[in-house]
């Protein structure tokens, strides 16, 4: 029997800089994300396919900006 490797979520510095909520709300969000990762069934139940063609221009711009930051960060790699 193989042992399943547990996933660990590591949040990039500054990833919540544009979060518009209280510290308590942010703590709840982080806890919720960690709980979903610990339970793959819950993660899949809370996931959905996104068609980029259906997103508005403002959201696409934000996503593109975040991806550029990731790609420009030489200390991080996408796997």
Helical coverage, percent range: 40-55%
Strand content: under 5%
Number of strands: 0
Number of helices: 3
Mean model confidence by pLDDT: 82
Secondary-structure class: mainly alpha
The biggest sheet, with number of strands, parallel, antiparallel or mixed sense and barrel status, is: none
The H-and-E topology, N to C, reads as HHH
Low-confidence parts, pLDDT < 50 over ≥5 residues? none
The general outline is globular
Radius of gyration: 15 Å
Q: What is the CA–CA distance across the termini?
A: 26 Å
Structure report:
The chain has a domain at 23-72. Helix content is 48%, strand content 0%. It is built from 3 helices and no strands. It has helices at residues 23-38, 40-45, 57-72. The longest helix is centred in the middle third of the chain and has 16 residues, at 23-38.
Question: What would you say about this model in short?
Answer:
Helices cover 48% and strands 0% of the residues.
Pick out its properties.
single chain; about 80 residues; mainly alpha; about 50% helix; globular
Q: What is the topology?
A:
Blueprint: H1 23-38, H2 40-45, H3 57-72
